[in-house]
Design goal:
The structure is a homotetramer. By secondary structure, chain A is of the alpha/beta class. Chain A has helices at 7-24, 28-35, 54-57, 86-97, 112-119, 131-137, 141-151, 156-174, 178-185; strands spanning 42-47, 65-70, 102-108, 190-197, 202-207, 212-215. Chain A folds into 2 domains: 1-37; 38-215, 3-Layer(aba) Sandwich (Beta-carbonic Anhydrase, Chain A), CATH 3.40.1050. Chains A, B, C, D: One of its GO terms (biological process) is carbon utilization.
């Protein structure tokens, strides 16, 4: 190792050595199979937040979930404007190439992105100083109105309403992709909304008919 | 649970119950602290591929790394064109709000995104049918030329060269963000390139001076 | 391991390692005894269906049950025509060599074999394309008539009636074996009919006098 | 319960109650998904012997393996003679209906069926008194010759050679089914030979190229 040392890197390398001992060596056969290719059956779209790692919360095996993580677990709607559409590319890869059977959008409590969407505290800031976040969470603007109307812009109740609404926005936007809605209607693809409450560690699953999130027992 | 049952969901919920038993309950104090907020010191930008989960490879604790995952671990360059810039928003959040000290870009072997960049097999396809992936991995077009010149467009050698070059592209693009380059020059932020070789499970770290990736012992 | 890797094999091997850790090593004495020979007191005839494993449903110890599994838990009648009679051989082994005291025929809900017997959807297909299944479940033809007369050929009610009737067919066929009927009449062998309802996970036991299956409390 | 009581039944029911507590109730979601149908990716063909339960040795989840069990884990060759071909029907169901990806034939040590094939101690007995077993294990006659030539008909060495040869016979017979050999040649189906040594609890996997069985580490 001839790179600049740091406590951060040291910590990652120590973790990597544990992974070699516990996650790689005893699972040689799985890794040998994964060398040939991946066949995940689930795509998870989650927040970049350091407290809500899907691989940890769902205790998955390597190869089990294809994961997108960004601020607030957002999915922009299908749009063919020029530009680099990262979530759309990942979605296309998961659905068309890997043919996953299920897509889970997982929101979470204490989400900084959703809070900023609610308070609009970053509105008008420059790119690089908050402007990119502001532009990104504009995706929640439509849902925000109803939340603010019911709960105002402050307080945990309003924030949680915004977080739950965000999951529904991403689900709705997923369905604007023709390949998603077609596969869903043919029963080949299932969409799920989920919510991980950091305060008590409970996972909730959305019942889309009632619109309610209920804790998994 | 009144949502449509599936083996995929069942598997995630069973994993979640293991997490409750092993990852939440015995670590109540850590989660109580995380309830108040996150303070990750590292941002990791990794691929969505199901085989390269950073939380598993670095065996991190909850709260330790802020994670972006997309196809091929790409970072688009700083640009202020209209649109939803997901990676830029996450980067801004990590650097400006969370003040991480280190950003790790981790590429990996057998990367489907890098391979498609190399072969250009998806060029010209429609959005939703490969076009989103094609647009996204255009980010690698500059680096591709040199790879193709040296190794052609086929074979594991060419693919690996593309994968390693992709890490360098993302590092270079990170430095087009003024906030990143300024903090790096002041020694407040360290950028790292890393590569996880799926075939033998070895993590490599980039020495930017020599341009070489070397395995961590 | 120099065989072709696959996730299927990896999963089996990982399960085998759990078995070594939890099912073999802590039970060395039992396995040492089993090395000398088996003395199961029960034979179970069950369906090949992946959801109705008798060792799991009865949570048995190694060495406890001698198990035949085939499509629909069928027992052909005693017949001395030339050919390889697999169930007859196993029955002979259990009754004459191992001297089991009890034979349990366990049917189950959502049985694909019974459903095909009911609908006769595979009748006339070629061997290898459905014809083997069609020939096998001809064993249910006699019982089918009454079921169809009462319930028709479609719907869960008809299917369940076929599944329950199938258990009775296998019990009746067991009694065509002279060794079985003789031992039963001498009180040395007990036959049981059982039914595992996949929909609610309830085990039912047949009262042969009334002909009714009742759930075990 | 109004059926004749017995210690055997009592033991099964106690086990079933443990299954309800540990294998059903905490896994409600999995069972709800399995209610909709089974999707096993593996078929296992194993011996009826009470000591070699595949679900225990591979510690599988409900729904994971489709299982045939008969004396000595035999597969008769493809033949279209009249009669009830149980293994052929199960194979057809697994391959054509369920589309499993892998078939594992698992032999085992101390196999009574293989021993009888070797010694031919049951040759000439009447059906019901050993004759069914004798007819069934005639399937091993071809392989027996070579074993006897090398090792004689007595002793653990000869028995083990017969047991290992039996696995290869079943694999060869599997390949006489056109649907199996065609799918295997197209890379859609993998066949495996395995052997569970009761004496030391070690699972061996066959390398078909070398013809050797090696223990899984």
């Amino acid at each position: 190792m001839n790179t600049k040392p740091s406590l951060e890197l040291a910590s990652l390398i120590e973790g990597y050595r544990r992974f070699r001992a516990n996650g790689w060596n005893p699972r040689r056969e799985r890794w040998a199979a994964l060398r040939e290719g991946q066949e995940p059956r689930v795509m998870v779209i989650a927040c970049s937040d350091s407290r809500v790692d899907p691989a940890q919360i769902f205790d998955v095996d390597p190869g089990q979930i294809f994961v997108v993580r960004n601020v607030a677990a957002m999915v922009p709607p299908f749009e063919t404007s020029p530009g680099h559409h990262g979530v759309s590319a990942a979605l296309e890869f998961a659905v068309q190439v890997l043919r996953v059977r299920e897509i889970v959008v997982m929101g979470h409590g204490m989400c900084g992105g959703c809070k900023a969407a609610l308070t609009q505290e970053l509105a008008g800031t420059e790119p690089g100083k908050g402007g990119f976040i502001a532009d990104w969470i504009e995706l929640l603007d439509g849902a925000r109105e109803e939340v603010v109307h019911k709960h105002g812009t402050q307080g945990r109740e309003a924030e949680k309403a915004m977080e739950l609404a965000g999951v529904k926005v991403s689900l709705a936007n997923l369905r604007t992709f023709p390949c998603v809605s077609e596969l869903e209607s043919r029963g080949k693809l299932t969409l799920r909304g989920a919510f991980f409450a950091i305060s008590d560690g409970l996972l909730h699953v959305l019942d889309e008919e009632s619109g309610e999130f209920s804790p998994v027992e």
